[in-house]
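Fill in residues.
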């Protein structure tokens, strides 16, 4: 059936990688995401930008750069899987890795979690998360609810410090089991 759909131009079948939709809108959207995330990664990794200072720059550049330049940047970066905020970078063919669907506020108490991704839009929030080490790859244990501020109490594996994260922020941090 996949072959038939592929012959009809509805999907593209890539050996060992599964099936990708050729839906033009989706591909276009993924193309913009790809450019944005590669630009952010390049700015941080190669040009020394801080991770809280790249979003606007990437938004400006993402509509101007050529696919050729993006491909060269990706190559130079060693084909990174994620951007500096942990978001997966779509492939040229429009494949994108699934993100975890659990957020920090939903993580059960006592469980070790690893931070996978944080939102990239708010520079102040990014600076705050960085200050307490709540960055992609960081391991932590959720201690339970925090009262002041209302949210979750998190103990970072690195540094062994406890931090209260507001529910509003915790609901935007993607986590997986460590
Ligand atoms: Zn961004």
């Amino acid at each position: 059936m996949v072959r038939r759909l592929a012959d009809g131009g509805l999907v593209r079948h890539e050996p060992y990688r599964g099936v990708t939709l050729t839906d033009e809108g989706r591909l276009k959207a993924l193309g913009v995401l790809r450019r944005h995330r590669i630009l952010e990664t390049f700015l941080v990794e190669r040009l020394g930008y801080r991770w809280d200072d790249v979003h606007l720059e990437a938004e400006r550049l993402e509509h101007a750069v050529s696919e050729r330049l993006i491909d060269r940047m990706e190559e130079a970066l060693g084909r990174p899987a994620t951007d500096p905020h942990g978001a997966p970078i779509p492939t040229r063919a429009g494949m994108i890795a699934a993100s975890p669907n659990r957020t920090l506020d939903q993580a059960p108490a006592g469980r070790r979690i690893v931070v996978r991704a944080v939102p990239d839009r708010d520079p102040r929030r990014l600076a705050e998360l960085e200050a307490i080490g709540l960055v992609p790859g960081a391991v932590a244990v959720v201690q339970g609810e925090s009262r002041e501020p209302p949210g979750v109490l998190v103990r970072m594996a690195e540094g062994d410090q406890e931090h209260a994260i507001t529910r509003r922020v915790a609901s935007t941090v993607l986590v997986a089991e460590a």
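Residues 36, 40, 55, 58, 120 surround zinc ion (CB under 6 Å).
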